Amino acid sequence: MSLLQQADLVSVPPSRQAIRQRVRQLRQQLTASEQSQAASQLAEQVLNQAAVIAKQHVAVYLANDAELATGPLIQALWQAGKNVYLPVLHPFCPGYLLFIHYQNHTELKPNRFGIPEPRLNCANLMPVAGLDIIFTPLVAFDAKGNRLGMGGGFYDRTLSQLPANSPCQVIGLAHNCQQVDQIPTESWDVPLQQLITPAKYFDFRNL
What we know:
This protein is α/β, with parallel strands linked by helices. The chain has a single domain, classed as Rossmann fold. The chain has helices at residues 16-28, 32-47, 50-53, 71-79, 154-159; strands at residues 57-59, 83-89, 97-102, 108-110, 116-118, 125-126, 133-136, 140-141, 147-148, 169-173, 194-196, 201-203. Mean pLDDT is 89; it is low at 1-8.
């Protein structure tokens, strides 16, 4: 059975670091074919959500460390006439992200983690509060919408800038195999409102 076909929740030890290690191993074991299939299915899942189609300013990410690839999704968003934005490391506020308008001709350069990002240009900057949707990467998630990232806290800090009544939708993207039984939470964690895998849409807002 391939990892994409696994239906059961991943059984892992309870510590956050143990979860990171185990789930990263699982997604790194996905074959190139499985990754490609998952990326195509994700784009289809996202574009099937009416709430996404109704929005205009959408932040996405470029995959790293076997994260669910977003290339087909970005292409689909462009074709649907959406404005797409990519995160860049904030040059003056360590630990925070900025979002830059991304087009098919946008020049990319690797940041200090080796992840491609647009060159910082204030003319192309979109404030976090101006985004309609922020698609976030993650290492693992649970049925309550708790999100476990790589440990740097970049998205948690950045998303904390959103006002409580912000209409911006924060939506996690993950492989099916990244769901776990339970994630131990910390006070700074920002839970997900929604999450999309290649096989399913999760809505955590009414839990």
